[in-house]
């Protein structure tokens, strides 16, 4: 079986967890004896290819107004024009067509199509090749990939999202199979009428997570160091975390690692400026960050597709405080390996912070369970084998059951 993987980015260009997971899948499928090829985007340039850790990777310049993965935020009208073109970008079809001609894949596995648009589906189907779409985020439902507005997840697309995703629902029924990285994200699409009548699968992501931090039990009277690592943005709940930490009354610190848009970083630093216990680390390697903290906090306001950062924390014997939204409900088990909080009840986060500081026995029990509770997410072989079975099924049946 020869597999063409299409994603917005590929190593060394990484915007988030999708790129990390994709590289593991691609290399795992190659190790299983299949031929693999990747097609991804760069800011500009004609189609060319290179080799990344033994994998052939095509890259081509994005044909749109700007590169969406930079730190700067374009103006409102520029963003609207970009999304209008990204609704269905026919200019990207020629590059897909050329790679299909050069490589003659058996099946195409589509991941994040931001920049490519669903024009990819038409080109691949025109070539008579089955398609498996993997859902890493809400891009196919909403142009901002979050389906989140005014501090809350949206149950409906809204007028603008509906217009910019016009016909996506109907076209989604023409692919061969769909995979959600969590039950939650798959059901969000099903509830909106997407992927009707085609095979549905759920395959949880996995990571090769080094045990950078050994199990470390707390003693009475010790300070508690909380940690946040990830993108510094409103949808990640960082403002909520800063506010609740400041009023929690605990003895400890809050370490914040990561980067975001420049204006967002300035906003969060200003919110924390009057509390010296809050320290911004900038970008940090998780291997260096996790040994410095006692609790990982994942306070997302939007519905995380899965929440692999929570898994990273658990794998390092850290209890996780997380919001009770999205795929985090599939990784964090309240009372077993962490505490779930409700963004609609803001003080629930402060109470969770205080509880893990005050109740040492409870903290130690959660910490002792953390890594074992995440075992499913630490098996790369499990993830790769499950994707292999899906691809073999669609090449045999072209998605017909």
Automatic annotation (TrEMBL):
UniProt entry keywords in alphabetical sequence: Transferase
InterPro entries registered for this protein in UniProt: Glyco_trans_4-like_N
GO MF entry, a single one: glycosyltransferase activity
Lineage top rank: taxon: Bacteria
Signal peptide: none
Gene3D superfamilies, alphabetized: Glycogen Phosphorylase B (3.40.50.2000)
Keyword Manganese: no
Glycosyltransferase subfamily 4-like N-terminal domain ranges (all copies): 16-205
Protein name: Glycosyltransferase involved in cell wall bisynthesis
Source species: Parapedobacter koreensis
